[in-house]
Fold this sequence. Notes:
With 247 residues, this protein is of the alpha/beta class. Helices cover 42% and strands 16% of the residues. It has a single domain (4-246), classed as TIM Barrel, CATH 3.20.20. The protein has helices at residues 18-27, 41-51, 77-82, 93-98, 103-115, 128-132, 136-147, 175-193, 210-217, 234-246, and strands spanning 4-8, 34-38, 56-60, 87-90, 119-124, 157-161, 201-205, 224-227. It has an eight-stranded parallel beta barrel, surrounded by six helices. Helix 8 (175-193) links the parallel strand 6 and strand 7. Helix 1 packs parallel to helix 2, helix 5 crosses helix 7 and helix 9 (210-217) packs parallel to helix 10.
Amino acid sequence: MKKLAAGNWKMNGTRAAVAEVQALLAAHPAPACEMLLCPPATLLAEMAGLAAGSALAVGGQDCHANAAGAHTGDISAAMLADAGASHVILGHSERRADHGETDALVLAKARAAIAAGLVAVVCLGETEAQRDAGETLAVIAAQLDGSVPKDATAGQLVIAYEPVWAIGTGRTPTIAQIAEVHSFLRARLSAHIGAEAANTRLLYGGSVKPSNAAEIFAVPHVDGALVGGASLKAVDFGAIVAALAAA
Ligand code: PGA
């Protein structure tokens, strides 16, 4: 299994920001891991053009569950693929919170993404209140069972564990907490999709940065990272890529 360093630019970046992509590719032309950047939809085609033939894949940050139709403001999986995307992030906690996305909706989106030939990067994670209440593993199990297609293969699916309280806060779980969740995730995914789970990438996300990447990547069943803020600058994301390639 090749490890995956994924960046989520969220609602950041105008066309000037693609200079960061050029800098990243110049510094890391052939890393020993996969690289993925998910820019705003407005930058997808341009970034995909720059990344063509390189070690960088590009992805969307969301897609609609339907293939086409009267859904103002939405983007279908096929449109992302047409713009050059190979992946799409689904069920990010910001989508779940800001847009009321349920597990059932994330599941429908994941099915649509896979049908369009995209890799579905399905996000899950507990809130701080849920962790404090001792509900972390139960919440993650329910999200996984509810949002991941049962027939997904390792090549069609990536899971990102992102504790909501660690996103954009500078706080990260302890190494023991990450290890507990990731080993639970592997077992739960096996129960859900079978043997494909062994080769499905499990990413950790939430305040990953150059200074903590190496210790997180040493945790068993952490097969990469989904990086928000630190993916915006080539020098920071590149350092995380280098840490993963060395792990
Ligand atoms: P962060 O975001 O790295 O800025 O904490 C992670 C994410 O939301 O994917």
